[in-house]
Structures are given as structure tokens and as C-alpha cells.
Amino acid sequence: MSLVFKKYYIYQFLFCLCIAVPYLNIYELTFAVWAFTIILTIRKTYSVAIITYCSLFLLIFLIALGSSFFWGHKNYDLFRDITYLFKPIMGLLVGYQLFKADKNKALNTIIYTGVILAIIHLFIVFITFLRFRTISVNLLREFCGYFSDYEIYVLIILVFYKQFELQFSKQKIRTFIILVGLSSFLYLARTNFIQFVILFIAIKGYFTITKKSLRIVGIVLLTTVTSYSAIYVSNPKRNGKGIEAFLYKIKIAPIEPFKTKINTDDWKDFNDNYRSFESITTVKTIKNAGFSAIFFGKGLGATIDLGRDVMSNDGSYVRYIAVVHNGFMTIFLKSGIFGVLICLFSIVYLLKQNKSDLPIVRNLNYLLVGTGVFLFVSYWVFLGFYFKYDNKSILIGFIICYREFLIKNNQQVLSE
To answer: E strand or H helix at 250, and its extent?
Structure first.
């Protein structure tokens, strides 16, 4: 009994550690912790679902590996890309294996990890306020973090606690919602607001095409367009203070990733549309490399030349970069069109969930479908599963295994 008790807390600690370590922005540490966890919790058997899903990311990696033999990339760049392109596979296996190791209180582990992260984030926000005697959008993002997709998942599960059959008191649910909700809001991340709306719609079942779902999605789209129009007309300034700075980022959001012409001599235009500049440069780099690069990429170790030194999120200046904000463009650089098509298929894979009569399994399926929809945004804006801060892949691997466990248990009960 004591041994089981100790194992339970060890696996909870490992899950929390694996989720938290990417926030430190030290990818070598993330890779080491995830690799250690995989080795420690390795299983004898894996389901077809998780093998199939991991195989898609493995195929992207193998295409990039094959392409790299035809280009003279530096060894450092090559080995770095190996770790980057293996990240989704590692995350999925970490989540899957940790659930396999402990099946007792899966959702409790997810929730408590999110609450711990929220408390830490709120503490950092408080310390930042004490340090600068003020708080602003720029201070929040620079010193307190850029986003937290994981906390949005936790918030959604808490909001729909009945659907996920959480065994917490209503008071505890309310307390957790306040903590995680406030923490999530203070990231002031546009993608997190979009993520919340998408997952909310998903759990309500509105991505299943019916007259009602079409009406609801239509209302959401109309509300979004109307709200954006109001922000655009109000014309928030680029260097505005407080909420105005955040509204300015919302104003430029629809244009920022899709702009095709950028004046690189105008620093405002360049900074506001930097993601588009990266994508344009990537396309030019691949196009100039020939047809083989277009279809199969330039392989592991490939970089693009920005033509100037640009400050990274780490505070260093770089000219040659191995990854860009747009995950599809990063895969295009490494694995070409074939890699991008496989990545798109990996998203569609999450959208295709088998129907279930079990309410909690049905809601977990909705969560996976919502994840698939959100991944289109996540890959376009922040590299999706490949971003070094990202920990969604762990949660998805965990949920896939949890769903399989529930289905198997139900089948055993019915057969008795």
C-alpha cells in the first residue's frame, strides 16, 4: 500500500515537472526532463491510436532527415533540429506513459498542475508590480510570460466540471476557476482568448454540423467581426498605455500573419508584421533552392537568412534562424510540401474521433476535436507542438490514454 502511495505521488510530480519545465525557456532542460521521464515510465505495449499519431510526426522527421543528406548543414544545427522535430513525439509519449503509470486520478493531476502554475504566475505578476510600481502589457509579457495554453485547458475542464465528472466541491471549483482564469487573462495572449472560445464551442458540441451548431458558430463569428470592427474604428495607438496597447495588438492581429508586402526600412511596419516577414523569407529561401527543396525541404539544420540582425525573445541578436513563428513554414523549410501535408493530416486526425455512449469519453473527444481546430491557429502563430514553450502534446497524449482506459473499463463492465 505504501509503495502504491509513493508511486502515485512520484508520477504526479513527474507530470507537473514535465508540464512546468518548458516555461523556463531552457530547451536543453526540457529535452532532458522529458527524455528521462520517457525512459523511467516506458511501457511494453502501446495502442494503435498513439502509435499512429506519433508516426505522423516521425514521418515529418524522416523526410527532413533524408533531405539533410543533400545539403551541407553544420553539425550543431543538424543535432539541434533533431531535438526540435522530436519534441511532439516526446511530449505525446510522456503524457501517454504517465497516464499508463497512474490511472487513479487523471483529471485531478491535470487540474492541480494547472492551479500550481497559475499561483506561480500570479506571484510573478505581483513581484513584477512591486519591482516597477506599475503594470503594463509590455511588462506582463516580458517578465511574466507570453501565453499558457495548458492553463486554458484546465480552465475549460473546470468550467465544464460536471461534464468531466470532477469530484471537487463547488467552492473549490470556484476558487480554482478564479485562480486559473485570472492567471490566464493576465498573459493577455490573443491566441489564448481564441483557444478558450474554440474549446468552449467544442465542448458544447457545436463543431458537429447541425442547424443549431451552424447558428451558434455564426453568432460567434458575427460577434467577433463586430467586436474587431469596433476596435479597428477606435484606432488604438501602437505606443498606447494599458489596455490600449493590447487593443492595438488585436487590431493588427488579422493582418500580421498574412501580409505579403512589408517595408523593411520602416521599423514599425517591420516589427508589426515580423511573422509575415519570416514566412516570406522562408518561401523565397525554399523557392531559390529548387524543386527538391519545395517538395522535401532543406532538411535538418536548414536556416533562413533574415538579412539583418534581429533581437530574439532570448534578448540576443540573430540573423540566421532555424525556426520561424509559423509552424507550417518551419516544417516547409525542413520537410517541404510533403511535411506540411502530413502536419495538416495530423490535425485532421484529431478531428476524426469515434462516437461514444460514455458522456465523459464524448467530452474528451470534443476536447480533442477542439484541439485540432485550435492547432490550425497554434501552428500558424506559435509553431504548435514544436514551440519550445509548448506542452500541449503531453496533455494530448495523456487524454488519449485516459480515453482508452475509460472505454476499456466500460467494455469489461459490460462483459461481466
So the answer is: helix 243-252
The backbone torsions φ and ψ at residue 317, rounded to the nearest 5 degrees and listed phi first, read: -95, 130
| Identity of the amino acid at 318 | V
Using alpha carbons only, give the angle 80, 331, 267 rounded to the nearest 5 degrees: 85
Short-list 135, 137, 131, CA closest to 240: 137
Query: For the stretch 218-229, what's the b/e string if a residue is b when 16 or more beta carbons lie within 10 angstroms of its beta carbon?
Result: eeeeeeeeeeee
Three-class SS state of 103: coil
- How would you class 412 by CB atoms within 10 Å of its CB: exposed for 0-12, middle for 13-18, buried for 19 or more? exposed
Cα–Cα separations (whole angstroms), residue 101 to 19, 161, 165, 345, 393: 16, 24, 21, 29, 17
Look up residue 297 and give its three cell numbers.
525541404
Q: Among residues 405, 392, 415, 389, which one has the least CA distance to residue 84?
A: 389
Per-residue pLDDT, 1: 46
Query: Mean pLDDT of residues grouped by 10 in the chain (416 residues)?
Result: 62 92 91 94 89 95 90 80 92 90 76 94 90 76 84 95 89 95 89 91 83 77 77 68 67 66 70 80 88 89 82 72 88 93 94 84 92 91 87 93 87 66
| Euclidean distance between CA atoms 44 and 347, whole angstroms | 27
Asked if 62 contacts 16 with a C-beta cutoff of 8 angstroms, the reply is: no
Look up cell 487524454; give the residue.
399
pLDDT at 244: 66
pLDDT (0 to 100) of residue 227 = 73
Report the C-alpha gap between 176 and 116 in whole angstroms.
10
pTM greater than 0.85: yes
Count CB atoms within 10 A of the CB of residue 82: 15
Read off φ and ψ for residue 388, nearest 5 degrees. -65, -25
Instruction: Please give the Cα distance from 95 to 110 (Å, whole number).
Output: 11
